Structure formats: structure tokens, C-alpha cells
Amino acid sequence: MHPKYKSLLNTSILIAYAMLILVLLKYEFLLFAFAVFYIPFFVYIIRNWKRVFEKASNFIGTVFFTSGIFFICRIFSEKSLNATFQVDHEFLNYSSSVSGLLAAIPLCIVLTGLFLFLRYWVKVAYYKTSSLFTTKYDEEYNSLSFGFSYFVIGGLFLTALPFTYIDSKAQEYYLLLDAYPYSDCNRYAAVDRNVAYIRQNKHACLRVELKGWGRPPVYTSFASPLE
Q1: 8 CB contacts (<8 Å, ≥6 apart)?
Q2: SS3 of 221, please?
Q3: CA 205 and chain centroid, separation
Q4: How far is Cα 21 from Cα 39, in angstroms, rounded to an integer?
Q5: Which residue among 10, 60, 136, 182 is the one 20 to 30 A from 30 at the CA level?
Q6: Structural domain spans, the chain
Q7: Cα dist. 175→61, 81, 208 in Å?
Q8: Separation CA 3–CA 139 (nearest Å)
Q9: Average pLDDT of 61-77?
Q10: 3-state class of 223 per DSSP?
Q11: Where are the beta strands (DSSP E) in 42-192?
Q12: Which segment, 73-77, 119-123, 147-151, 189-193, is predicted with the most confidence on average?
């Protein structure tokens, strides 16, 4: 097939593919929309596993990158929890780590997607410029695989949404990871399985009362009984 016709055919397939997803989303066939999008997404990854493996083989660089993102997110999460609940940073351990992790995952995905997005368009510009002088890259540029990679990059951005949603809904629950049914905040009170305590500072504590499944806990500040 002539490269021009092949390119036109692949473009038509991609447009029809995108329109199908939009129609399914419009009529709220969400499961079908996700299936139509993600099945080819994973098929593409499986078929190009060697390329994916090569990109993931730089393990050391990936570790440094993700560790740095997690470290930054943990710092911001700790400051956010400190500002929201007025809890000194020395009493925030597990809560800031989990909050930082749930913030780091979508941030890593978005940054990776941005990198791949920029590299994709750099390739497009390079192939178009090269086509003025040679036909060496025409087959790859006009291939369905290269065109579909644009949707794969979009899929990366979409995978960040569930983590962002979970993080927004879990804000009021993070502090439970550092709260305990028995501590020096309730040393002279009976232990209640629906109530936990965390120290805010040297002079005050937080009482965390669980209200049942699906209902956020209630936080009450009071003076430390050791005062």
C-alpha cells in the first residue's frame, strides 16, 4: 500500500477509535469505554514488551527519580497535615509517609507522561523534517503502532486520576495511622475501640472518634492530661 494511503487509513482508524470512546462516555457506558481504551492499551504494551523493557531497564535512574519525588511529596504532606490538624511534625510518622506516597504516584505518572509526550512530538517533528530529504522513516511514522502510542501516553495521564481521587478522599483519615487507642493522652480514661488519640504538641492532644464506615472521623482538641 502506498505510504500516503496507509497514513490516511491509520489516521481514519485512530479518529474512529477516539470517536467510539467519546460516544461511549457521552452515553455513560463507562465500563465499555474503559474496555475499548485499555484493552488495546495493554495489547500494545504486550506486543512491544521489548521496547517497554528497555525503557524500564534503567532501574537505578528510576529509583533515584521516584525516591526524590516521594521525598518531596512526603515533606509537603507533612506540612499539609501539620497545617490542617495543628499536629507537630514529630508526631507525624506513618500518616505523612502514606499521604506522600499517594501524592508521589500520580506525580510520577504525570511527569513520565509529560516526558513521553514531549519525546513523541519531537519524533513527529524530526520525521516530518526528514521526509523532505529521505523516506527512511516514512514507514514508522505512518504505522498504526506509532499513531496509537499517542493514546498510550494519554492513558498514562488517566491512570493518575484514581490515585488523585483516593488522596482527596483520604485526607481526613491519614491521621488515624498515627493515632492510638491508648497513649499518654488518655492514660486516665477507659480504652474505647472507636476512639483514638494523637498528641498535637506538648500541651494538647487530639481525640479521634470513628463514626462508622463511609463517615469521616471527628477530631476534638483538648488539653493534655499531663499538664
Answers
A1: none
A2: strand
A3: 33
A4: 12
A5: 10
A6: 3-169, 179-223
A7: 32, 8, 9
A8: 7
A9: 83
A10: strand
A11: none
A12: 73-77
Torsion of CA 69, 75, 76, 77, to 10 degrees: 100
**Alpha-carbon distance 196 to 186, whole Å?**
9
| Mean pLDDT, residues 66-90 | 89
Greatest distance between any 2 Cα atoms in the chain: 85
Give the mean model confidence (pLDDT) for residues 20-41: 78
Cα–Cα distance measured from residue 38 to residue 45, given in angstroms and rounded to the nearest whole number:
10
Query: What are the grid coordinates assigned to 177, written together?
Result: 495511622
Taking residue 188's Cβ as centre, other Cβ atoms within 10 Å add up to 8
Burial letters for 71-89: b for 16+ Cβ neighbours within 10 Å, e otherwise?
Answer: eebbeebbebbbeebebee
**Could you tell me the strand order of the sheet in which 195-199 lies?**
195-199, 204-209, 218-223
Q: What angle do CA 51, 159, 29 make, to 5 degrees?
A: 115
Running DSSP on this structure, what letter comes out for residue 47?
Answer: H
